[in-house]
Design goal:
The protein has helices spanning 37-41, 67-73, 94-107, 120-134, 152-160, 172-185, 196-202, 204-213, 228-240, 258-261, 283-292, 302-316, 326-336, 358-364, 376-383, and strands at 17-18, 21-22, 63-65, 79-84, 112-116, 140-146, 164-168, 189-190, 219-223, 247-253, 296-300, 345-350. It has 385 residues and is an alpha/beta fold. It folds into two domains: 17-91 and 198-362, Rossmann fold (3-Layer(aba) Sandwich), CATH 3.40.50.1100; 94-194, Rossmann fold (3-Layer(aba) Sandwich), CATH 3.40.50.1100.
C-alpha cells in the first residue's frame, strides 16, 4: 500500500507507515461517512471478513485547540490540543477497544462477556453487548464494580443497557482478580484491557490524532489508571509512523500512584474514581511506553485534578470527568517544572464525558444556590443589572 496521506483540504501531511510501508486509511476520517474504527482501520486491526462487526460508530472524536491552557503553560511556541474521547457513544475511550473485543467475542461464538470496572468499562461493555443482541447474537454482560466507588452516571449506564451489575465490597483490583478467576472456570469472555483486542481498538486514537493534527504530536499527556490506554496509544504511534514519535507522559492520582511509588497500593483513594486503581494490569507496558518514548509517569494531587477539571469546563468550555483532567493537571505541573520543551505540540487526552460524574461537578462548582420568587426586580438584582 503506497501513497501519501492527504487531509480533506488536499494539503499533504506527514508520511505514515505500517509494517514498513506507507499507510493510508481505507478512507480518511475527513472525507467520508463515519462507520466506526473497524471500518476505517480494518487493515490494521485483528479482524477479517468472518468477523461480525459490532459497532456504535465509535471514534472520530474531536481534537480541540485549548488556547487558555496553552497560555497557562507559559512556554514559547507551545500549542495544546484536547482529544475529547467523551464524544464516543457511551462517553469514554473504552468504546474503541470494546468494539473490537466484542466483535471478536461474537466471532468466537461467545455468549457472554464480563468485566471489572470503575465505571466506564462497564458502561461500554454493557452497550456493546446490547448492540450484539441488536445484530441477532446472544450476548449477556456481567459487571463487577467496587461498591460506593463508581460515579452515578456510569453505574446508571451499565444498568439501563441491561448488564447484570454486582457491587463488590472491595476495590477495583479485587474485582478484577475475581473476574479473572471466573473466566478460567466458566464460558464467559473477559473484556477488561488485559484482553489484547481492547488495546488493538484503543490504538486507533493515536492514528486519529496524527490524521487530525496533520503530524505526530511532540508530547501526549494521558491519565493513568489500569494503564491500558497509555499502552494502546504508544502501540498506535509505533505502528503508524516510523518517523518522529511523541514523548508519552502519563499521570496517576497521588492517592492511587502504584507506578510512581513502585509498589502496589492496597487501598487507593482519589476523587478521580476512573483511575482509582492500585495494581494496574498494564503496569509494565506503561513503564515501557514512557521509557521508550523518553517520557515519564508522574502523579497529581486531587486538588490539582479538580483545579484542572474546573479550568477545562470554565475556561475552555470542554466537559470531562475528573480523571480526564489528570492529563491537563499533569501538563500544567510539568510545564511549571520545565519538563516540556518550547515550541512543542501537546495533545492531552480527555478520557471520559463530563456527565459521567454529576456529583463531583456539582460539588466542585462555585455556584451558590439561588432561589427567588417569580419577581423581575429580584431576578435582575441577582443578575447584577
Amino acid at each position: 500500500m503506497i501513497g501519501m496521506f492527504v487531509r480533506a483540504n488536499l494539503k499533504p501531511a506527514l508520511t505514515l507507515w505500517y509494517n514498513n510501508v506507507v499507510m493510508i486509511s481505507k478512507s480518511t476520517i475527513f472525507t467520508r461517512p463515519w462507520n466506526g474504527i473497524i471500518d476505517c482501520y480494518r487493515t490494521y486491526l485483528p479482524v477479517s471478513n468472518k468477523t461480525p462487526v459490532v459497532t456504535l460508530n465509535e471514534g472520530n472524536t474531536p481534537l480541540v485547540y485549548a488556547p487558555h491552557i496553552t497560555k497557562l503553560c507559559n512556554m514559547p511556541g507551545l500549542a495544546v490540543y484536547l482529544k475529547v474521547e467523551g464524544a464516543n457513544p457511551t462517553g469514554s475511550f473504552k468504546d474503541r477497544g470494546m468494539t473490537v473485543a466484542v466483535s471478536k467475542a461474537v466471532e468466537m461464538k461467545s455468549k457472554a462477556i464480563i468485566c471489572a470496572s470503575t465505571g466506564n468499562t462497564s458502561a461500554s461493555a454493557a452497550a456493546y453487548a446490547a448492540r450484539a443482541r441488536a445484530n441477532g447474537f446472544k450476548m449477556d454482560c456481567f459487571v463487577l464494580v467496587p461498591k460506593g466507588y463508581v460515579a452515578l452516571g456510569k453505574l446508571s449506564q451499565a444498568m439501563i443497557y441491561g448488564a447484570k451489575v454486582i457491587q463488590v465490597k472491595g476495590n477495583f483490583d479485587e474485582a478484577l482478580k475475581l473476574v479473572k478467576e471466573i473466566v478460567e472456570k466458566y464460558p464467559v469472555t473477559l473484556v477488561n484491557s488485559v484482553n489484547p483486542f481492547r488495546i488493538e481498538g484503543q490504538k486507533t486514537a493515536a492514528f486519529e490524532v496524527c490524521e487530525q493534527l496533520g503530524r505526530v504530536p511532540d508530547v501526549l499527556a494521558i491519565p493513568v489508571g489500569n494503564a491500558g490506554n497509555i499502552t494502546a496509544y504508544w502501540k498506535g504511534f509505533c505502528e503508524y509512523t516510523r518517523d518522529t514519535r511523541p514523548k508519552m507522559i502519563g499521570f496517576e492520582a497521588s492517592g492511587a500512584a502504584p507506578i510512581v511509588q513502585n509498589k502496589i497500593i492496597e487501598k487507593p483513594e482519589t476523587v478521580a474514581t476512573a483511575i482509582r486503581i492500585g495494581n494496574p494490569a498494564s503496569w509494565k507496558q506503561a513503564v515501557n511506553a514512557a521509557g521508550e518514548s523518553s517520557g515519564f509517569i508522574d502523579c497529581v494531587t486531587d486538588d490539582e485534578i479538580i483545579e484542572a477539571y474546573k479550568l477545562l469546563h470554565q475556561k475552555e468550555g470542554i466537559a470531562c470527568e475528573p480523571a480526564s483532567a489528570a492529563s491537563v493537571a499533569g501538563l500544567l505541573k510539568s510545564a511549571k517544572l520545565k519538563k516540556i520543551q518550547p515550541e512543542s505540540t501537546v495533545v492531552c487526552v480527555l478520557t471520559g464525558n463530563g456527565l459521567k460524574d454529576p456529583d463531583t461537578a456539582i460539588k466542585s462548582s462555585e455556584q451558590e444556590k439561588l432561589e427567588v420568587a417569580p419577581d423581575l426586580k429580584e431576578i435582575t438584582k441577582l443578575l447584577g443589572f
